[in-house]
Design brief:
alpha/beta, STAS_dom_sf, Transcription Regulator spoIIAA, five-stranded mixed sheet, 37% helix
C-alpha cells in the first residue's frame, strides 16, 4: 500500500521550505513540481526540501529535484535537501548524486546554509 505524498510550504527569512511526507513517485511528483513552480514563479531562488518524511522516492521524483536544483542555480540561488536518509539517501548514493545536491542533516542547518547572515554594518 502506498502512502500519498503530502506537500506543505512555508516561508522562512528569505528561503522557502517545502516539507515532503510520504512517497514521491511518478504519480505524486506533479505535486512537488507544482509547489516548486509556484515558488520559483514568485521569485524564490533559495529552497530547502525537507525530505526527512519521505518513505519512497523513484527516478521521477529525483528528476524533479534535479530540474529545480538547476533552475535555482541559474537564478543565483540553491535547492538544498534536509534530512535525506533511508531510501532517498540510498538512491542519491547509487546514482552518484550525493555531490550534486547540498545535503544537510535537518532544516535549521539547511536554512543557515541557504540564507547567509546579513553583513554587520561597519562602525564609522
Amino acid at each position: 500500500m502506498t502512502t500519498p505524498l503530502a506537500v506543505s510550504v512555508r516561508e522562512h527569512d528569505g528561503a522557502c521550505v517545502i516539507v515532503l511526507v510520504g512517497e514521491l513517485d511518478k504519480l505524486s511528483s506533479p505535486l512537488l513540481r507544482d509547489a516548486l513552480t509556484a515558488r520559483f514563479d514568485r521569485g524564490a531562488s533559495r529552497v530547502v526540501l525537507d525530505v526527512a518524511g519521505l518513505r519512497f522516492c523513484d527516478s521521477t521524483g529525483l528528476w524533479v529535484m534535479l530540474d529545480f536544483r538547476r533552475r535555482a542555480g541559474e537564478a543565483g540561488g540553491c535547492l538544498r535537501l534536509a534530512g535525506a536518509t533511508g531510501v532517498l539517501e540510498r538512491l542519491l548514493t547509487l546514482t552518484g548524486l550525493t555531490g550534486v545536491f547540498p545535503l544537510d542533516p535537518d532544516v535549521p542547518a539547511a536554512l543557515r546554509a541557504a540564507v547567509p547572515p546579513s553583513p554587520v554594518p561597519k562602525a564609522d
